[in-house]
Write a structure and sequence with these properties.
Elements (H helix, E strand, L loop, with lengths): L1 H13 L13 H19 L3 H6 L1 H9 L9 H32 L8 H16 L2 H12 L3 H25 L3 H9 L4 H35 L7 H10 L3 H29 L1
Helix pairs in contact: 5-8, 5-10, 5-12, 6-8, 7-8, 8-10, 9-10, 10-12, 11-12
């Protein structure tokens, strides 16, 4: 028995070594060729003329140079206008949060009380997302008049389509067993939302809310150009009068505000995580 046991390792050593599997093929050249072909196709389809772009670099540099001397003489008014823009964005986000709080549970398949209600809520959210902010702002300005209020309504209606969809999809990822366990106790629609849906998605939902706020601050500056008030409206008037030094100052105020909000939102997201 001893000799047979000792011969087994020797037999294993005599067996031929299995060859290594073939080296995977490197398709980097194919990917590079595909990217180049795609870029060439885009250039041809869009009719991009690089010679014209190169010739226009001087004009671009000359135009940008007009903003090289910002005038902060009226800085207090710029800050006040930026405050109006921030208020517009905050109220727009609050409107979006309120509408999403109502529509998101109805648009979540596992919490909606009826398939018809589910489909109706989904289509409402789709309509809100499909309507651009600028179109909504023009509609509300025509109906209400100039000022930040129509801008807040436009931001609220449009961004609630995104926030409601985000929250509804978060609710659809809630653990099925937990939902069935709470429902088996006789909990109704409101109880399941209060004790299962909202507590489960709260951290993720707050992250989405911060994203919507960050986005609305940027859009509030743009909506001001169509009569929704704030610093965007003043910036539009300044550009029409070719006051580039004042326009540069307002652009820097907007940029600094957006950077501060972005850092604050990132800090809050890290704290929530």
């Amino acid at each position: 028995m001893g000799s047979s046991m000792s011969s087994e390792p020797l037999a294993a050593l005599r067996r031929p070594v299995q060859p290594l599997p073939p080296r995977p093929r490197d398709y980097a050249w194919a990917w590079a060729a595909g990217v180049v072909a795609l870029l060439l196709g885009i250039t041809w389809h869009l009719g991009i003329n690089f010679a014209a772009l190169a010739a226009g670099l001087g004009d671009i540099a000359e135009y940008v140079h007009r903003y090289s001397t910002p005038n902060f003489t009226d800085w207090s008014r710029y800050l006040a206008l930026m405050g109006i823009t921030l208020a517009t964005a905050l109220w727009g986000t609050a409107i979006a949060a309120g509408l999403s709080f109502i529509l998101a549970p109805l648009a979540a398949k596992n919490f909606s009380p009826h398939p018809v209600v589910y489909r109706g809520a989904r289509e409402i959210l789709n309509f809100m997302r499909a309507m651009p902010d600028l179109v909504l702002a023009l509609m509300f300005v025509a109906a209400i008049g100039l000022g930040p209020f129509p801008g807040a309504l436009a931001l609220g209606v449009h961004s609630s389509g995104f926030l409601g969809k985000f929250l509804a999809e978060c609710m659809e990822r809630v653990d099925k067993d937990t939902c069935e366990g709470v429902a088996s106790t006789g909990a109704g629609f409101i109880q399941r939302l209060a004790f299962v849906a909202w507590p489960t998605i709260l951290p993720e939902g707050l992250g989405y809310l911060l994203f919507i706020l960050d986005r609305n601050v940027r859009m509030a500056s743009v909506l001001g150009m169509v009569g929704a008030g704030g610093i965007g409206f003043e910036l539009y008037n300044s550009l029409r009068m070719f006051n580039y030094d004042q326009s540069a100052a307002m652009i820097l105020v907007i940029l600094a505000t957006l950077l501060l909000i972005d850092h604050a939102a990132s800090w809050l997201r890290r704290r929530l995580e």
